[in-house]
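Reopening this one. Same input as before:
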Amino acid sequence: MNFANDRGESLAAALELPDGETTAYALFAHCFSCSKDLHTATRVSRALAAGGIAVLRFDFTGLGASEGDFANTSFSTNLEDLVAAARHLETTHEPPTLLIGHSLGGAAVLAAAHQLPAVRAVATIGAPATADHLTHLLRDAQAELIATGEARVEMGGRAFRLRRQFLEDIRRHNTTDHIGRLGRALLILHAPGDTVVPIEEAARIYMAARHPKSFVCLDGADHLLGRASDAEYAGALIAAWASRYVGGTATQPAAGGQADTIAPGEVRVRELNHAFTRSIQTASHQLLADEPASAGGADRGPNPYELLLAALGACTSMTIRMYAERKGLALEDVRVHLAHDRIHAEDCDECETREGMVDRIVKRIHLAGALSPAERARLLEIAERCPVNRTLKSEISIVTRSE
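Same output, byte for byte:
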């Protein structure tokens, strides 16, 4: 689709729609000198659509298929384009309740959110805290820009012409005050190995923002999320996180008129696609569950048995550490490795069941530190008293009700 900005220029856009019900609408802002068709924008948008969130992505003025001269643009005109895109989405469908920005697009959505009252949540990917971060990328052209008013700049293998107004404009956007006044839920995703926008910029955003705010490390990813799995993971994670704030989520009124919140100790699981990707929400945390590609999943999170092992392993480690601290033991580190399989009952000496198959979880516990043999033996004994361990070994009643 196309829509006009405030300067009358036609901007090219694409709307990624879910196959099923649309729970919310989002607006995606791409990186500096990129376009809506960059693989990062496409993959993240499609992962969000798989989670029920429609995403509008568009080309800023002078980029991609949009009209206008890129040399005449600035960070401020980018913000105007963002607001125009949100207005178009509101006119044709619904106002966006989620903003997503990659790189400089992340700085743009942080700055533009104040002008979009319907927005409830903002997510950034590899974003600088402020637009003036770009000045270091323009250092080779700064002298020419100041002297002649225009310069040729190469970024991402492409050449662009910029005018002095661009440099002057980004220098004005040099504080994080607007982030402290954001007033929306914020998710920050950043790769520690990002060589374009260092991870210290993510720290600046996080420190400037107020809660609710979350940070996710995109370990192993590059700035452009070049691997498909990194971009798809980011999109699915944003969808899971945003489901708490936009669309049919825990923030919406239930049938009885009360807020449908998640109480401490409760867990909610909802579909993000019609395969195996699931959003898991607690009162204050979100994560993903999935199946590996070999089982027909997208491998965007641990599978259910891995989550079960994680619960047991975490509880075991916590219980050991708590006991060691209370007794003043020289425990430097504790690691728990777990594996699940099924064995024939006749091969299990400690099992009461004597026929068929039984589930078996093997725990291997590594204790580091100057511990005596007696202390090590005691810690292994204490590990069996972990509450989750006791739950799994006791009789469990699971009650299923229809809502």
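So the earlier flakiness isn't reproducible anymore. For the record, The chain has two domains: 2-136+165-242, 304-393.
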